[in-house]
Design brief:
- The structure is a single chain.
- This protein is mainly beta and 185 residues long.
- It has one helix and eleven strands.
- It has one helix at residues 139-144, and strands at residues 37-44, 55-60, 83-87, 93-98, 104-105, 111-112, 115-121, 129-134, 162-164, 167-169, 172-173.
- The longest helix is centred in the last third of the chain and has 6 residues, at 139-144.
- The chain is globular, with a radius of gyration of 17 Å.
- This is Protocatechuate 3,4-dioxygenase subunit alpha.
């Protein structure tokens, strides 16, 4: 039997919009939270064209390096979810309102530089891509971060957010020249 068109098992893409986004998904913290910043950017393809039907998810520690998770023995912070989800708009743009993360423990007790874990899902991508956002003001911590140091120095800039008027800009290019560094997790 032959079927015309694509099925969910053949592609992702428009199927992401059916039930995955939710109204407060982009708000890791509520609007008006002291110290809140916007992380804004765009998801683009190999030709630099916007991907209007991608989904960006973030997972991060709070400013004290604690996760909003029952397995974190340091406790939870009221009003801090740690998880954000935002579909991209027609221009490939996304936005996440959050607080800057603190350093978190890495292997053998070494601290990792403050960062936000990012997953991107999109049309034609049968698996998510995973990257990290690091922050420019953490230059000393970034210099010794065990994960960031796995990345060739010439490509590390794709993982460093740029300051903006009300927070930071972090663009994700899924392939091609200037491709964002992705991690095999």
């Amino acid at each position: 039997m032959s079927h015309a068109g694509s099925t969910p098992s053949q592609t992702v893409g428009p199927y992401l919009a059916i039930g995955l986004p939710w109204e407060d998904g982009p708000f890791v913290v509520p609007e008006g939270t002291p110290g809140a910043v916007w992380i804004r950017g765009a998801v683009t393809d190999g030709a630099g064209e916007p991907i209007p039907d991608a989904l960006v998810e973030t997972w991060q520690a709070d400013p004290d390096g604690r996760f909003d998770h029952p397995d974190d023995p340091r406790g939870r912070v009221p009003g801090f979810r740690g998880f954000g989800r935002c579909p991209t708009g027609p221009d490939g743009s996304y936005r996440i309102l959050t607080r800057l993360p603190g350093a978190v423990p890495g292997r053998e007790g070494r601290m990792q530089a403050p960062h936000i874990d990012v997953s991107v899902f999109g049309r034609g991508m049968l698996h998510r891509v995973v990257t990290r956002i690091y922050f420019p003001e953490n230059e000393d911590a970034n210099a010794v971060d065990e994960v960031l140091n796995l990345v060739p120095e010439a490509r590390r800039g794709t993982l460093i957010a740029a300051r903006s008027e009300d927070g930071y800009r972090f663009d994700v290019r899924v392939q091609g020249e200037g491709e964002t560094v992705f991690f095999d997790v």
